[in-house]
Design goal:
8 helices, alpha/beta, about 40% helix, two-stranded parallel ribbon, 7-stranded mixed beta sheet, Spore Coat Polysaccharide Biosynthesis Protein SpsA, Chain A, globular
Length: about 230
């Protein structure tokens, strides 16, 4: 079994080291052939230095000078990945890396973690307003794009590499709304998506601003719909 783990990181110096240790330990115990691609999305702290200090030669730093957005970072990592499976995980490991075990049992082209299924396990909740937005956002998305997915934004998704590269070559959303575009393109391309309940905890320090980023995410969803109506996705 071989897997590329893509971790987008923007000013994650306080927790990235511990997260990398956890991911490496998990993958080593299971004897995976792996690489970890940390994409430094224009951080202004010591995020890059923490990656460069790692002793494991299977940890790689991809970096660029300007903050371009989470979607741009994930796309950069996916297109650089070399293994047959590609796992995208948030740097804070809000979804523990051990949830990968359940994903491997799926035969789907794409397996996505979900916080909004009945058997999802939320061990530390977000503030109430973020909980409500997290449940409302997929419903709004469904009214614009018929995805039928309960949680588009959970930062733990597994792709077969062939599917991931085909999808992300067409993803244009650079910000937090990229998940919606990627999943919409996946359905449009005929890939099978398996949404699975996961354990999730609020790690705090979210980079998503309710006032700034949620309207941008909704606008990105409308842009995906417009591109599709204009035939820009082929």
């Amino acid at each position: 079994m071989d897997v590329s783990v893509v971790i987008p990181a923007y000013n994650e110096e306080s927790r990235l080291g511990a997260s990398l240790d956890a991911v490496v330990s998990y993958l080593q115990k299971r004897s995976f052939d792996f690489e970890i691609l940390v994409v430094d999305d224009g951080s202004t702290d010591c995020t890059a230095s923490i990656v460069l200090r790692q002793s494991d030669p299977r940890i790689f730093l991809l970096s660029y000078g300007k903050n371009r957005g989470k979607g741009f970072a994930v796309r950069t990592g996916v297109l650089a990945a070399k293994k047959s499976l590609i796992l995208f995980s948030d740097a804070d490991l809000s979804t523990p890396i051990e949830e990968f075990d359940g994903f491997l049992r799926s035969k789907a082209d794409i397996v996505i973690g979900s916080r909004n299924l009945e058997s999802s396990r939320i061990t530390k909740k977000q503030p109430l307003i973020r909980q409500r937005l997290g449940r409302a956002f997929p419903r709004v998305v469904d009214a614009i794009l018929p995805l039928g997915i309960k949680d588009t934004q959970c930062g733990f998704k597994l792709f077969k590499a062939k599917a991931a590269k085909r999808i992300f070559r067409s993803v244009r959303t650079a910000g937090f709304g990229f998940d919606v575009e990627a999943l919409y393109l996946a359905k449009k391309m005929g890939y099978v998506i398996d949404e699975q309940p996961v354990e999730w905890r609020n790690a705090g320090g979210s980079k998503v601003s309710i006032l700034r980023d949620v309207p941008r995410m909704l606008w990105d969803v409308f842009k995906v719909r417009w591109r599709d109506l204009c035939g820009q996705y082929g």
